[in-house]
Amino acid sequence: MKGNIISQFFIIMFLTIGIITSAQTKLSNPFGLVYKDAITENVPGKVNIHPVSYKLNGIDIAANVYTPANYDPSKKYQAVVVAHPNGGVKEQVAGLYAQCLAELGYITITADASYQGASGGLPRNVDKPAFRIEDIRGMADFITHYAGVDANHLGLFGICGGGGYSLKAAQTDKRFKVLATLSMFNSGVVRRNGFMNSQLSTIQERLKQASEARALEAAEGEVRYAGDTKITDEMADKMPFDLYREGHYYYNRTHAHPNSTFRYTMSSLLDLMEFDAATNMDLINQPLLMMAGSKADSYYMTDDAFKLATGTKEKELFLIPGATHIQTYYVPEYVDQAVGKLKEFLGKYL
Fold it and tell me: For the domain that residue 71 is a member of, what is the CATH number?
């Protein structure tokens, strides 16, 4: 009995990990970018990055806009909104793909979610689906009024958790003419059931904890957090899933950023656990591309959502041979395949 309790404790701990990067992390890139071949300076005639800020429902949002080579604000460009993964920030994989799309000639924007990263909002690290979906709409609000953007040719690309929230945003916001996802992660389903349904037995217990956290916030202002465990390499190596094991090394070692954390307010679970990115998929009538690694243990989420997308006549599931979930974030051969597919998809439909 004791062994079972210990085993359950470690599984729950692993599945609610908080990859907490040290605030003392030194970033050599002047824009804070941590991906390979990132822009280090704005050179005339090349792809440039433009840090911007704007208000969204009273909150200051921090974003980066990427403009293509030889950008001329008097001309018209197609644009793509890029939504970052859970716990991620605009300087990591979202920035990599935003830069790659700018190299293809698109104006792109990627922003830190409200309450997260360099964006405002208190308490910190609130992670509610409604807010993340609104963040995507807010990026669309901003970029469609950016000099040179053709608002009639706006695409949406979401990665990991940002992919799940992009599915929901595109269901109702028809400013997005096309939709693509990479390594889509259905945040609500995983927060409720656990990764690969590994936490079904603790749903009610975790809902009780979230309810108590909400009550404590209201009564005393104290904020409780989930995923606030400091993970060591040794602990990560024993994790049962590639997504979490490789995620530790990506977010906490190879592509660490001081604003990136998987910590989130415990009370957020009240919203997360009743959310499902794959509901109402029939509302998506735009061309849809869903990409995932063929070896990704998160692939079941992409597969489930894709099957439910019955409202669009143009949809494609693209598997990247040999890639796991996290490897699609940075491994050159897998990134190149994803970008190549995006080039084909956007060129055809946007």
Answer: 3.40.50.1820
